[in-house]
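> tool_call: predict_assembly(chains=four)
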Amino acid sequence: MGLPSNDRNRLPSWRSAAYAAPVTVTLRDVARFADVHPGTASKALNEATRDRVAPATVRRVLEAAERLGYQPNTFARGLRTRRSYAVGVVLPDLTNPLFPPIVRSVEKVLAAAGYTTLIVDTDNDPATEERLMTMLRARHADGFIIATARREHPVAEAGDLVPMVLVNRLTEAALVPAVAGDEAAGIGTAVEHLVSLGHRRIGHLAGPQDLSTGFGRYRAFLDATQRLGLASADCPISFADSYSEASGLRAAREMLAAAPTAIVAGNDLIALGCLDALAEAGLKCPSDVSLVGFNDMPMLARLNPPLTTVHLPQEEIGTEAARLLLDRIARPDGPAKRLLLPCHLTVRGSTARPR
Amino acid sequence: MGLPSNDRNRLPSWRSAAYAAPVTVTLRDVARFADVHPGTASKALNEATRDRVAPATVRRVLEAAERLGYQPNTFARGLRTRRSYAVGVVLPDLTNPLFPPIVRSVEKVLAAAGYTTLIVDTDNDPATEERLMTMLRARHADGFIIATARREHPVAEAGDLVPMVLVNRLTEAALVPAVAGDEAAGIGTAVEHLVSLGHRRIGHLAGPQDLSTGFGRYRAFLDATQRLGLASADCPISFADSYSEASGLRAAREMLAAAPTAIVAGNDLIALGCLDALAEAGLKCPSDVSLVGFNDMPMLARLNPPLTTVHLPQEEIGTEAARLLLDRIARPDGPAKRLLLPCHLTVRGSTARPR
DNA sequence: GTGAAAGCGCTAACAG
DNA sequence: CTGTTAGCGCTTTCAC
């Protein structure tokens, strides 16, 4: 009596527990060991119901659980409570260096609250996204952090049905909590910086317009140039159809016909493509053309020239997203907070006075 | 009759299903709709037992499931079958660009086999790793892909108790399946390349020796230089205590006292630190000192000079790791295959003939 | 404050 | 080939 009933996987004591095959010790085992009814053991183990059990009993149960290395069975608990303590994080592309820092901080906050993070990579494919969402739903994720950012996106309609937080995208409908960098302000700062250097012909290599970031930064560029009194004829715009060096190269070739003295790129990869286009055209950066990127991905400081770019507070974005989600899970009907975190311009060597 | 018994979350049809709160349709609902017993419905739905059900019945059940949008409850199934169809992937650091491509291909293979990938980031901390492993175990992960690579690692002892595959590390004990790039060959190729350029004084900036990669590459360097007939006195070695630019810088400063004409770095980050040390010392790369990195992280081609480095087949590593694991889950007692995938040297601008 | 009992949704062994 | 039944491990009323 008092020992786990199940010993099909009893393991030698010298094994490291975490990597060994599970020895299944159940609540019944704990209860038997502590000499109480399983129901009572359950109450004692559960923070919320603990106060309905005599302190001495609680102690006995807790000790038994400790001694036996009791781990509640997630399946049984989930089946009963309909909660998984798992959160889905839906990313468009894990290899995009923008996301890992966000994921890390999300994971940290959620883990501290007892949640498991289910990371999922949609490969920028709506069908994959649908499939993965279905999977996450089947696993009864308690909430979602969604970083895929098509402007036309089913999530915009799903509204407040399931706890979720949007990252890097603010839907028009303010029903869904969201956190993002203040990209408009970031683009604004970039344009101001160029204007203050003396630029008057500033182009924009816009990102994909079906992504909310691409669209948002484009609008922000329009606003900023207008606000600063630049003629729209002096502000050529080309559209890249993806966030990639190749698309950036194509768009930049087009752009260079308009001979801007400075260019604001939709993101860093587009800026890199632009760098190639400049080299191709025999133009030097920054002496002939200044260039600003967006995102501040790693290694930019080591480029030639080091790229000036708008820095996003990735870690903070992740932290806040996780907090908002926990909030939402706790109070699904609370107001949908929407957070805009400040971006700053990291000035490096790719911007200078025009000739 | 024939409708889901549970309508607390019935959703308007215009909502996108994937993002809406779950409407719970159970096996009983499907069975009722198809007018069979739940047990029969279960058999019909399950590939493996389907042939014990009349084809016409199978069709009816399948259609009912489709019509009602039936999703089996993972908890109930897991509780019953003691399988989760989830696999834990344990990474030391998600922000290391080495891992995302591996994770992506792992995820792809596992998803195709019906498994969910649980990605977990240990932040290079053994305690965090232990905690996360416990969590994964509580969630009854069916297997593990482990990419953390301390040489002293509990996993090395846990042996074949739970299905797992090691990535980027071959334990001495050949009990655990593993897949890695052939780093020794990679280092060998790098040294050969330098020797063929005419270098005779070749240094090594070794990575942390408590990591199996750091140690393995160090040994490979020793082997290669000896094999090629270089005097060990001509092959200075400094140790970086982490894979970082800062550590690389420190180790490189030390190394430069020995005046090698070429340096093989333990990884790319160490190589970057080395680049800084060279600049500091007023040495030009590659004209004064040639430099080779390891891993081929992104952006290296855009550096000044573009870094020559050993390329790891990350995608293939991930694919093979996932396959090995599926194998292992299917036949836990099969032989532990150990795969060594070829690395190739990507020659760029940081290596040249010595003066 | 504790015990008893029901049941979450599923699968698998066994009967028919 | 189909139905019946039991039970995975847990939480949660409801009695006592």
